[in-house]
Amino acid sequence: MTDTSRVFQLASRPDGAPKPDDFKLAEVPLPALQPGQVKVRNTFLSVDPYMRLPMTTLEGVHAPTDIGGEMDGGAVGEVIESTADALPAGSFVFSPLMGWRDLYVADARAVAPVDPKLAPLSAYLGVLGLSGMTAYAGLEYVLKPKDGETIFVSAAAGAVGMVVCQLAKRHGCRVIGSTGDPRKAALLKDRFGAEATINYRSDDLRAALKQFAPDGLDMYFDNVGGSHLEAALDSMKVHGRMALCGAVELYNSGNYRQGPGNFFAAIEKGLTLTGFNIGLFAGKRPEMMRELAALLASGGLHGDETIVDGLENTGKAFVDLLAGANVGKMVVRL
Ligand code: NDP
Predict the structure, then answer these.
(1) Which of 28, 63, 183, 253 holds its CA 20 to 30 A away from the CA of 269?
(2) What CATH code is carried by the domain that includes residue 248?
(3) Is residue 2 very low, low, confident or very high in pLDDT (cuts 50, 70, 90)?
(4) 237 and 97: one domain?
(5) How many domains does one find in the chain?
(6) Above pLDDT 70, what percent of the chain?
(7) What pLDDT is stored for residue 1 in this prediction?
(8) Atom 7 (ligand 1): residue with closest C-alpha?
(9) Has residue 25 been placed in a domain?
(10) Is the CB–ligand 1 distance for residue 23 below 6 Å?
């Protein structure tokens, strides 16, 4: 009997905000295990804003997915069959691509072992995974915060943002966080180290930044792009630094590759704008993991998660993520 996997395919290109029926759950045959391969049953799947990018027809690092093509993304699962000595059945692995499905077969070298004793498995998709390392790299290697500086963080209560806020606070920075949700604003203050919060749905961003940082911002960690980036450009101090991480405001706009209208402010103020993607910091992965895992274990870092149950709810979880339903990292539990 052939094994099968249940995997989501892209059913239609979303026009604006995605809908659950833009994704279709299909049953596909699993290939037979070849030497040096593992068969994995996923335990947790990641949903991330970047997954919206290949649903467009725009070329970029995330090439467009064909209609009917399989969705991919991060996942953590248990090896249930193995022809690779290094990863016997019963071990747990991370795959950057084999998400949005229950079972898969892959080369052992395409997955990475994870230790369930060090942290809960879901953490390898969040605070000890893509999100935590993105926060760490953007703050520690790009912005290099100093005690007493003021930092503005957008999408501050999300997977990346909450880690940035907490790490910046540990450096002695004054943290201003934005969110569209009052419940998240409260968590930002009570749990993630923000001194001030801005609700971008109800507050005027520029006026609020003026109020909370009357002398201007030293740093901006940009997860949102669009109107947030424009407001931050206008609010930076001379020689301020920006880490350009993402642009979630633009992902449903039809052109996520567009820039800010007031870019000239960067010239006038001598700003340093550093775009980055976490793939560029692969060599720093062991150091980032070590630091983040130590902080998590000591209670010096909260790794909040929003957990959705059931493979069949993956499309809806992704839709809800972009609509802001998550606090911290959104994962699907199988
Ligand atoms: P989050 O957990 O922050 O989830 C997305 C959040 O974005 C939502 O919860 C919502 O929060 C907020 N949001 C949605 N629409 C808007 C909008 N129009 N304006 C403002 N906020 C909005 O996601 P991640 O932490 O995983 O990702 C954050 C950013 O980091 C994204 O831009 C992502 O693409 C980027 N990223 C970049 C990486 C890199 O290597 N450069 C790697 C990983 C992520 P709220 O309720 O507050 O509105």
Answers:
(1) 253
(2) 3.40.50.720
(3) low
(4) no
(5) 2
(6) 99
(7) 54
(8) 155
(9) yes
(10) no
284 within domain boundaries: no
- The residue contributing the CA closest to ligand 1 atom 19 is 249
33 alpha-carbon distance from chain centroid: 32
| Distances in whole angstroms, Cα of residue 306 to Cα of each of 245, 294, 302 | 22, 22, 13
Nearest protein Cα to ligand 1, atom 18: 249
The encoded tokens of residue 208 equal 């609020």
Can you give the pLDDT at residue 76?
A: 98
Q: Which two tokens stand for residue 213?
A: 């940082």
Q: Which burial class, exposed, middle or buried, applies to 267 when counting CB atoms under 10 A from its CB (0-12, 13-18, 19+)? A: exposed
* Tokens 């820039």 found at: 259
For the entire predicted model, the pTM comes to 0.98
Same domain, 135 and 121: no
CA of 83 from ligand 1 middle (Å) equals 39
pLDDT digits (tens, 9 = 90+) for 25-55: 999 999 999 999 999 999 999 999 999 999 9
CA of 224 to the centre of ligand 1 (A): 6
Residue 316 falls within a domain, yes or no?
Answer: yes
